[in-house]
Amino acid sequence: MAGMTSHLKIDFVSDVSCPWCAVGLGSLEAALRRVAPGITAELHFQPFELNPQMPPEGQDTFEHLNQKYGSTREQQAESREMIRQRGAEVGFEFSPEGRPRIYNTFDAHRLLHWAELESPARQAALKKLLLKAYFTDRQNPSDHEVLVRLAAEAGLDAARAREILASDEFARETRERERMYTDAGIHSVPAIIINDQHLISGGQPVEVFERALRQIAGAAPASVAVA
């Protein structure tokens, strides 16, 4: 027996408009690279909306954060720089200017739901493209043309993506899944759920994720021996 391998199921509950979700995903992926090949995982991205009532035109970012948290421009700039540095540590590039507006992300979540049905790998690709489009390229993640283009870049069918966005397809399923996680007590993201029972909250450092993955895999009854 040369070693043991564990395969973990990871549900990554997050929003496209959440900067700490981009940091957390980068940290988690770095941790998974560290524990490979003994520990592998399949990621599933689950929907959470930070601003479900946001209108289609969105809202100025400073105005939104000022209303929500009472933060000044200086405080927001300090927070933005801290997040930018944390992102850089795990290979994610935030635009130094920040995001100009906060947008409604429900249609992005509908596309992610469809992408998961097509392939978890393509869902992961779409998720990362959405985060980059918003936080690096300062694009609008509620714009249907942006969403169709990103879906195609992720290897998904552009015509099918456009068809979904023009309808309310997967709206009910996405709402139900959002409600499932909020009913379970998740009210901030990212929330990383491993094997349906272990919760890690927030954009934690790589070392925290690595330690948790090793502990959970070591205790996992699903471990199998490999020759």
Describe what is shown at a glance.
This protein has nine helices and seven strands.
Record keyword descriptors for this entry.
227 residues; alpha+beta; five-stranded mixed beta sheet; single chain; 52% helix; 9 helices; two-stranded antiparallel sheet
Summed over residues and divided by their number, the pLDDT gives a mean of: 94
Tally of helical segments = 9
Task: Outline the biggest β-sheet.
Answer: 5 strands, mixed
Structural class by helix and strand composition: alpha+beta
Radius of gyration: 18 Å
* Principal-axes shape call: globular
The total of beta strands comes to 7
Percent in strands: 15-25%
Please write the string of helix (H) and strand (E) elements. Answer: EHEEHHEHHHHHEEHE
Low-confidence stretches: 221-227
Fraction of residues in helix: 40-55%
Terminal residue distance = 5 Å
Descriptive account of the structure:
- This protein is an alpha+beta fold.
- Helices cover 52% and strands 16% of the residues.
- The protein contains nine helices and seven strands.
- The chain has helices spanning 19-35, 61-69, 73-89, 106-118, 120-136, 144-153, 158-165, 171-183, 206-219, and strands at residues 3-14, 39-47, 59-60, 101-102, 191-194, 198-201, 224-226.
- Strand 1 (3-14), helix 1 (19-35) and strand 2 (39-47) form a beta-alpha-beta unit.
- Helix 1 (19-35) packs across helix 9 (206-219) and helix 4 (106-118) packs antiparallel against helix 5.
- The longest helix is centred in the first third of the chain and has 17 residues, at 19-35.
